Amino acid sequence: xxxxxxxxxxxxxxxxxxxxxxxxxxxxxxxxxxxxxxxxxxxxxxxxxxxxxxxxxxxxxxxxxxxxxxxxxxxxxxxxxxxxxxxxxxxxxxxxxxxxxxxxxxxxxxxxxxxxxxxxxxxxxxxxxxxxxxxxxxxxxxxxxxxxxxxxxxxxxxxxxxxxxxxxxxxxxxxxxxxxxxxxxxxxxxxxxxxxxxxxxxxxxxxxxxxxxxxxxxxxxxxxxxxxxxxxxxxxxxxxxxxxxxxxxxxxxxxxxxxxxxxxxxxxxxxxxxxxxxxxxxxxxxxxxxxxxxxxxxxxxxxxxxxxxxxxxxxxxxxxxxxxxxxxxxxxxxxxxxxxxxxxxxxxxxxxxxxxxxxxxxxxxxxxxxxxxxxxxxxxxxxxxxxxxxxxxxxxxxxxxxxxxxxxxxxxxxxxx
Length: 417
Ligand code: AMP
Ligand code: MG
Known about the structure:
Blueprint: H1 6-11, H2 17-26, E1 34-38, E2 51-52, E3 62-63, E4 67-70, E5 81-89, E6 104-107, E7 119-122, E8 127-129, E9 132-135, E10 145-146, E11 157-159, H3 167-175, E12 180-184, E13 188-194, E14 198-199, E15 210-211, H4 214-224, E16 228-235, H5 239-250, E17 255-259, H6 270-277, E18 278-284, E19 287-288, E20 292-298, E21 301-306, H7 310-328, E22 339-343, E23 347-348, E24 354-363, E25 369-373, H8 383-386, E26 390-394, E27 400-401, E28 406-411, H9 412-415
Helix pairs in contact: 2-7, 4-7, 5-6
Bound molecules: adenosine monophosphate and magnesium ion (MG).
């Protein structure tokens, strides 16, 4: 049996990342308030109800190319066909009244298909002889024509409730003629840093002080996750004042996020403060970097206490806090799909915790992306995050991982969406 660390002996087995996320989920419900926004302001917002297509897209059959529209039935079964040119339809023009039987009609991309025409020859493929169009054989019926409703049919679900709107969703809604959308209010996320050593950038730095990096990290990560930041500054390592600040914060936010002070040292006061101000649910997860993560309720509001080291903050935010903010915002969030990469290093780890290793990617000799580990893996080394491409995930149960093993890779961009 694996040796238990002093921590594990004292506090029991670690909770898996999934168990933690599930228990955290049980503590939050989506914010109920909705608002109506113009389409132009809706990027990144979460749709509060299904949007059904109010029209067919495209609304009418049209040509997909610049070319010549014909009735397929007029084409010779073998060999070329010669048809007289009998009309011209640019995009935006009316094609009504054109005689298509036995004729070819000049059409342009996006122009309505003349009544009866069902097939379009690309202009590059035909030869014009005066007013006669010479069409090659071999084109399939319906080629280069886009039927009405080909993209989405009227009455079909266009974008589901809970979708966090992306540019492509907004484009679809615009194409369907929508001008306003009902979205959820952004969840308000209060963020604190804790630590007597922390100084606000811009202030003089004392001899044993460091600048607060985590609040800047969290402000940006929360914003990207769709939350509205309530920035409550730096708190001292003092249980009573921490407890008071947490209680006050609970009054004007939907989630409280802190960093630092959740380890087992006697200067780590966040857990005790949460116990004083509310209830502490759990605080140790099998995740590295980042094991100490506290979860609780303060005055009815969910609380997540992230570790202090910035890399641990990054990882635990991505895998624990991020899904929570999504749920608060009414969003059907799932982790982004990981990509398989080959490990260019061997690795030893403890069983029972998932490790996220900062790596850079480069194509291996066979073209498969190969991950190389950043030389510094301390949880406080910010440049290990700025100088790498993403995280590889090493499974909970694994202990010895051979070089060349395939592993799941998460690009930073995907974790920050
Ligand atoms: P703690 O969990 O409070 O013991 O913090 C662990 C480490 O993270 C210590 O080296 C802290 O100085 C550092 N740390 C904590 N909070 C921050 C922060 N906001 N910005 C940068 N480093 C921090
Ligand atoms: Mg501290």
